[in-house]
Give the backbone structure.
Amino acid sequence: MRRAGYAPLRDYAAIGDGRTVALVAGDGSIDWLCLPDLDSGSVFAAVLDAERGGSFQLAPGCAFTTERRYLPDSNVLETTFITDDGVVRVLDAMLLPGDGLAPSRELARRVEGVSGHVDMHWRVEPRFAYGSRGPRIALRAGMPVATCGQDAVAVSAWEAGDPLLDEHSISGRFLASEGHAALIVLSAAHQEPLVFPPRAEVESRCAVTLAFWRDWAASRTYEGPWRDAVIRSALALKLLIHAPSGAIAAAPSASLPEQIGGERNWDYRFCWVRDSAFMLDAMMQLGCPSEAEAFFWWLLHASQLTHPRLGVLYRLDGGAKAQETTLDLSGYRDSRPVRVGNGAAEQQQLDIYGDLMQTAWLYASANSGFDRETGRRLAEVADLVCELWRQPDCGIWEVRSEPLHFTHSKMMCWVALDRAVRMAEAGWLPPRHVTRWEAEAIAIRDFIESRCWSDELVSYTRSAGGGDLDASALLGALMGYGVGDSRMASTIDAVRRQLGSGPLLYRYSGEDGLSGGEGAFLCCSFFLVDALAQTGRVDEATDAMGELVALANDVGLYAEEVDRETGAFLGNMPQGLVHLSLINAAVSLSKAQHA
Amino acid sequence: MNVWGAVAGGFVGTVVLTTALRAASELGFTRMDLPFLLGTAFSADRTRAKALGYLLHFVVGECFAFVYYGIFVAIGHSGWGLGAAFGLLHGLFASTALVSVLLPIIHPRMGTADSSAAARPLLEPPGFMMLNYGARTPLVTLLSHVSYGAIVGGFISLAS
């Protein structure tokens, strides 16, 4: 049920083609689509402004209920509309190239009458450049098109009624009877003429698309008790991988709020270095060596311009600039400002060096090292960590308050130097600075153990000398800091006690420079499962995993956060780190159960 | 004037013309993509079509340079200015008759006012002055063709 024009965030499913992602609401409206790429301007953004954002609606003209699922092991969404007059099934997919000259982006909506006679209505209201530019709508060669500068979309409709054009939209209605199959296709062009596809080729590409997803899912290697959740997560992650570069976006959406009506609205359509180790680990665990390799080399390539320093995040094309601006949109349920770009790109975060070195360590371990030039570059990164680790930073959660000596950042600096030493011992990094790396790693550990531990809380604290807790300490354990140590074991308990309720965890206590609050952070909850599994607490981990898997929406996707009271989703979705951490937790749990 | 001036001018002029059109596309002035339009007449494969289109574009550029050369020889005059005037005429011809009318007739994948997407994929037709590809397309087309003409005229007049 929509409220003031907005569907609950939990209602959204995602479809995509490796270049962009559309968010489809439970009532059949596509409320988010950026073209030509995931990080381009939007053509549909009703999720951020129900009046001016633009959408592609498709639903019965009478009252209905819906049931949804993805076709098994695919990213083809099936929505079944159930009405008093009959039942209609809609298949939504972003099509992959197949036979013939295909549009550069193609979104297909196939409507099949299952029973009875249902009056179906559809309306395409494109609003280019995040709703700031209205389209020019006209017929070209008998085809309805909407154009705006470099961008254009065409609407092809077969057995879906005669399209009606007005100043703002292209619409139609038709009767879907049993055995009837209508097809509505949105073709997009950027900096080139539109391609108007024939139905036979669209149908062929629909089959190619479904077959691709099923083949890809069938190639994944996880076989454990959480297979459905793991494969769905893998398919969701595949949607976030930018096919031309191998980079993975944190999420396909921007500015979906962490608090309804609040200011914590961020653009996640970038690749965070922080996610890299999880990404590589998950891809390798799932038997995706090509994706893992593409990502690792993309990461090295993207960071070359800033070497030896790392950017917190990079654009999907590898650029380091992500200037943050605000849009003149009302925001999801009046959650403003609506931001695109991300100011975190300018922050200093020390933990990312540990993520990079862990990523390199995982890659090198699986591939017996890498070339000498890469080794030299990574050694220079380790040297930089020796210089930087004493500085305060903004931490993994990108706080906008004053920089602090965050415990997690120090732990990850230790991880960076520990992995550098290990890689040098394996002969993959030049060894001339190993003594310095070892000495600095000891100094970091001394700093953490003396200044980031609280006897009162019986836990590592959020920052040096502070009295707050932070779930990111769990990551230290997952990366190998303090494993088997009683301090880390008691930190897990303290974090659960202070920041959690059941399996759900908040990120931290204390200030972050922003007003308002946020929901429970789902990736932290999966970190907890992983940490419990890795510390031998298998029964607790299994129980928590079961509860978390049940929190997914009806099609198996997660947003960044969940409201602990209502179960409502908050933040951008589907969120890559949540799905990555789910996969890694499931793998750890399976290993622990078989240990 | 000699024919090698036309060869060189045709090549350099087409480089400038192609670069100008691509830059205009990147800057958001137009959705016109001449190599894509030309290449898709022969191939439905996007990558192959673009590669072929660039090759064809250069061949066509050389052909027009020879036409310029023939006219210069016939009238006994050549130069940058005259070439630019020819380029203006060339641009008007290209954006009205050539691309707007003739290309949709001979292009097997281009839509016309009478066609519908029944059996084959169709390219969006360019419309008068190629305005379907953006309001500033005519300006971009004319300026780039004036540059082409000036370069061809200049090279031909300089070659002895």
User: Anything to note?
Assistant: DSSP finds five helices and one strand in chain B. Chain B has a mean pLDDT of 88. Helices of chain B lie at 3-26, 34-39, 46-75, 80-106, 137-158. The longest helix of chain B spans residues 46-75.
